């Protein structure tokens, strides 16, 4: 292993997306293995009382680490929740001998430093069908299903659930306090800076409400103006699992990480639609109103944006 750069793998893993950019993980080296551990102090008390979103975030870090190892021409076996006696140990990546990566693995690993969340408007280009096929294939390998929300009635249902969920959150002072803790007017190593939630132009509006990081749950609506804004209808994808346990949450995070890198490799962008999957009531509404078989784990919009990276990463404390 002397010629294999474990530090670069950990650096790549630390670039994974996480809820409110909390980065709720630590990494530890154990011989020829990398351990991914939860950092409970970075869990969101209001939005994530069960640590589901923490696990989804750490699952994305696991997938980023796996791809970085594979791009380094090494075998890599991922063991999820390997030790019952160590509940904070979420995964162990055993690194083996030389094994050439696939061209797609190299392409996705190369996309890791370019990936970012774009919360601004996207243009009208649809995602290429091959991207959706690739996403469905990889998600199925991880035990995660994918549903494309393209029916108008389903999109209206999702928009209603999003609006009602965020209104409920905004009415609770605990939500506002937590959001303030993880947002900042200045760039920081953790949390979401104000510049990461851009103001949309007056002539465009999304057909689904996007999280208002002021905590007020306020959004412009289509119509009711002298010149109604053009309504943007992006690609909406919902990820879910057959069961709803820690292993499923980690698998959802791995699937999400792979999906986001596949989009980045295509020069596409994505944004989580968090209120719909933050709390149990909104997740239950999605399951009921969309007739889902299984448990919704993550909802996001995708398209071709024109933003730029806004969030930073912490450099200290990631390696235990």
Care to give the gist of this entry?
With 320 residues, this protein is an alpha+beta fold. The chain folds into two domains: 6-113, NADH Oxidase (3-Layer(aba) Sandwich); 129-303, NADH Oxidase (3-Layer(aba) Sandwich), CATH 3.40.109.10. Helix content is 35%, strand content 20%.
Low-confidence stretches: none
Separation, N- and C-terminal Cα atoms: 19 Å
- DSSP E strands, number: 12
What's the CATH H-level homologous superfamily of the largest domain? NADH Oxidase
Helical content (DSSP H or I, runs of 4+): 25-40%
> Roughly how many Å is the radius of gyration?
19 Å
Molecular structure report:
The chain has 320 residues and is of the alpha+beta class. The chain folds into two domains: 6-113, NADH Oxidase; 129-303, NADH Oxidase, CATH 3.40.109.10. It has nine helices and twelve strands. The chain has helices spanning 6-13, 52-71, 103-111, 129-141, 152-170, 173-181, 246-265, 275-278, 280-289, and strands at 25-30, 33-38, 74-80, 89-98, 145-148, 183-184, 192-193, 204-206, 230-232, 235-241, 269-272, 295-303. The strands form four sheets. Strands 1-2-4-3 form a four-stranded antiparallel sheet, with helices on one face. The protein has a four-stranded antiparallel sheet with strand order 5-10-12-11, with helices on both faces. A hairpin with an 8-residue loop joins strand 3 and strand 4. The longest helix is centred in the N-terminal third of the chain and has 20 residues, at 52-71. It starts with 5 loop residues before the first helix and ends in a 17-residue tail after the last strand.
